[in-house]
Amino acid sequence: MREREVGQSPLDAVRVFLKGLAAADEQANGIEAFHTAFGGVPQLRSRLLLMYGRFEQALAHVLAEESESEAGHPTPRLVTAQFISLFRLVTSEEARERVASASADERLDALNAWIDESAVLLAEGLACYGIRTSASAS
């Protein structure tokens, strides 16, 4: 985060970082190996959850410093929780299914599109997502 370009948002830095990880893995072992390594081993998933919590706390501290937020303000922590969700969701079943449905040559593009779409949703905000337009019939 501290190494991002001048003018680059934290969200875009996370998006670029994730796409870089996916591209590096594609060159070494393939996207499915990336998903399997990070999403397919229960012991590794529990360790990742601990790592994500620590990463979220450290990143929130960096963003609080950079934004000069007052101590205890929820914004840096909420923002970083959303960034960490992008990391977590890259190895989700939904992402894996989307990538698996693409041809072998298009899997990296499918994962990159998934990352981009997720980042756009975060950038646009969630206030209008899922607004009920009618009462459900029971």
Description:
- The protein has 138 residues and is an all-alpha fold.
- It has one domain.
- It has helices at 10-28, 31-39, 42-67, 74-90, 93-100, 107-124.
- The longest helix is centred in the middle third of the chain and has 26 residues, at 42-67.
- It is globular, with a radius of gyration of 17 Å.
- The model has no long low-confidence stretch (mean pLDDT 84).
What distinguishing features does this structure have?
single chain; about 140 residues; mainly alpha; globular
Report the radius of gyration as a whole number of Å.
17 Å
Distance between the termini: 48 Å
State the helicity in percent bands. Answer: over 70%
What is the 3D shape?
globular
| Topology, number of strands | 0
How is the topology of this model organized?
Blueprint: H1 10-28, H2 31-39, H3 42-67, H4 74-90, H5 93-100, H6 107-124
Helix pairs in contact: 1-4, 1-6, 2-5, 3-4, 5-6
In short:
With 138 residues, this protein is an all-alpha fold.
